Amino acid sequence: MVDTAARGRTTRGTRGRGPAAGAQSGGATAEGSVPEGALREAGVPVAGDVDAEVARDLGRTDGTADTGAGPRVDVEALGSLLLGRWADVRRSSRALTSRPELHRVEGLDMHQHRARVREQLEILVEHGGVHRAFPRIVGGLEDHGGNIAGFEELVAADPSLQIKAGVQWGLFGSAVMHLGTERHHRELLPGIMTLETPGAFAMTETGHGSDVASIGTTATYDPETGDFDLHTPFRAAWKDYLGNAAVDGRAATVFAQLVTQGVNHGVHCFFVPLRDETGAFLPGVGGEDDGLKGGLNGIDNGRLHFDHVRVPRANLLNRYGDVAEDGTYTSEIASPGRRFFTMLGTLVQGRVSLDGAATSAAKIALQIAITYGNQRRQFVAGGTDEEVLLDYQRHQRRLIPRIATTYAASFAHEKLLGQFDAVFSGASDTDADRQDLETLAAAFKPLSTWHALDTIQEAREACGGQGFLAENRLVGLRADLDVYATFEGDNTVLLQLVAKRLLTDVNKRFAKADFGVLARYAVEQAADRTLRSTGLRTLGQALADRGSTARSVGQLREPDTQRALLTGRVETM
Fold first, then answer.
1. Domain-embedded: residue 272
2. Are strands 251-260 and 199-202 parallel, antiparallel or unpaired?
3. Which terminus of the chain has a smaller tally of CB atoms within 10 A, N or C?
4. What is the pLDDT of residues 406-421, one digit of tens each?
């Protein structure tokens, strides 16, 4: 709903509707669903059209002169460029998220929201897109990049749906796929793929998040029974903040310290049943509901603990380390540290997907704010009509730089996704490739999630009171995206890991370098700093953007350009 005062402030077919009226795929609002065709006829943009809309704004495709001064572009080619390598997958996922039954409904209590999202997972199973990454032997497509490309689009329907789907198939299922063997794939993945076996990813503990190597849960092998004794030794070792753990999870991939023959071989992963068919915990398994959260309340986050639960030896996901019947431990990776990081590296897709989902959320927020800025009018400036907000330079400056950053993040994510696909498809899977992928994911995830939070907040403020209404989505997006900064790795810690990798690389590069190499490096760095700090790089880009030598020369001669260059020289010398 929109107050009476706001009705006269909107134009072009959206009177009485908020700025996000069409910003959710399919145009659904809290009052019900509106067909996309009706929205388009009314002049309201639909989220699935955003890339084509941007392309159309840049120019015509029929070869005729546009009425404005913008360049003529090939709209179809630009749209495909923006959608990237997996354009068809993204289009299919957007069509899916346009279904009203997948949309978030404001005002639901926690239990209603959870139930709705649980039902939505069944729709995803029927669609089949969630099976894209799994092995062909169980009906998957082994399309790792396409899987994430489609998954990211779910944020447009409801971030809770995106994350709960990610828990089921991107974490729980992926742990079985990447840490288990073909036997595990054949036995366990079919139930995971069809949602017959909903599950949790039990790594984080109340007392240990980023420091996974120090988790307290233990799995001690008993050669007399052929089982592992899975145990939570103290309260801080409870598994915590786990999606699917509070209600829906029937099993979990549990990370624990593997102990056999008196030796701790470090963290390994086990497939552990949690509940029976009635939803009751199995003997020795306990837990709690995390309750209401600051966002993502469509997900049943909870805690788990284990009191000497017997886990069959076959349930050890033993791709990187195995225990024989007599208790002998073997691994193809001799170094415990390298083995640990190899296991964790196979789970990097969580960070990759959050990078893309955060960028998608930033796009949604900007679409809402730009739509509003193009319709809302305020103050008369020289004419008889009030000015559109986006005609004000200050309003442009608060949004347009963020649009540019968002597109940069989108292209960067496409590169990351390509590298992820190359590694996991085997096309380019060396130790160096995996390390580079892990470093890029650790760098991009903090930058994109912080950018998304900043952009959503700015978009909220740019929409004034309308931005504070729940039906216009911005406050909900802000609440749901808040945790993106800390799950799948705390952003600050991730950037420290990136810094460590960069420093290690520099040390390797110059470990045996002579004075000449060091001197050349110092000169290169000094030149680069000079270029960046004096404004020459900005000037060069501005001249290139002119697209004409004559216009470029003209700008270089302008007093403002010369003044900026002289000012930069004074400030930096």
1. yes
2. parallel
3. C
4. 999 999 999 999 999 9
